[in-house]
Amino acid sequence: MAGRGRRFAARGAPVRWCNLERFLEATTPVVASNCSSKESVNCWRQSDADDPLPFFILGDLWDAFRECSAYGTAVPIVLNGCTDGIVQYYVPNLSAIQLYGRFRRHIGPSRTSARESDSDYCQDTVSEEASDLEHDTSSSTNAFPFQETSESSCSEVSSDDGESHEQLLFEFLETEPPYQREPLADKISSLAKRFPELKTLRSCDLSPTSWISVAWQYY
Prior knowledge:
The protein is built from six helices and nine strands; from the N terminus they run E-H-E-H-E-H-H-E-E-H-E-E-E-H-E. By secondary structure, the chain is α+β, with helices and mostly antiparallel strands. The longest helix has 20 residues, at 111-130.
């Protein structure tokens, strides 16, 4: 495996770094952040603080993987502590993703009306997309855009000033073997045709429960 990489002089690399640290440095995406007031975040906000909330757009995150999806990411590897090493190339694949939205119900005199409003929001969010985004059972992958769940199935976390509820917005689980998977940028473009919000959602629109798994394949 090591013999296929391009050789390089490792003397300029930080001596304290191990190969894992070099890999993380080369493959960690860098995405520009923005700031949003709590009013613009609306019911998705995770805090009532007045400070601006930093966020990034998912489309910018996927763009950060575009070049390495096409050409691979160069990772310098040092062998046996030698001063010379090799450069190996890795391509990112999307292994799995779950996106959860989060909204808060405030406890107070208007609790009943707020509950009805949030219920309508939860159901409308699902119904707007679910009717046009049916799962293709013949596909080799599992993608469930806007999981159609009732309000009672939303994950709930209580707090002193209100109740937080989570809604599964999108789920994808790759089932293809690694050597048959599309590069991450290509896979996202394909999934976004059925779920365009993959490129427009903001990180502040999502619950911390959301997660993404990226596999880096050596070639």
